[in-house]
Automatic annotation (TrEMBL):
Protein name: Protein SlyX homolog
Family classification: Belongs to the SlyX family.
Coiled coil: 2-43
Keywords for this protein: Coiled coil
Organism from which the protein derives: Aeromonas bestiarum
InterPro entries: SlyX
Top-level lineage group: Bacteria
One Pfam family recorded for the sequence: SlyX
Family matches, as PANTHER family: PROTEIN SLYX
Amino acid sequence: MSQQLNDRLETLESRLAFAEYTVEQLNDEVTTQGRELDRLKHQIQLLVDKLQSVQPSQIASMAEETPPPHY
């Protein structure tokens, strides 16, 4: 093979190795973010469940409030 062909082949191999490394890094990041998303969804569901189980507050709703005297 000619030197020019060898150089081109080495360049392509280097680019392929870099692309494979980048894909692996991106895959790791997506996996990490997926786990974090699952954890956050679980925490939100726990908060929703906790809020739904809390007794209603002692503050009257707007419908139950008597209007101010100037009305």
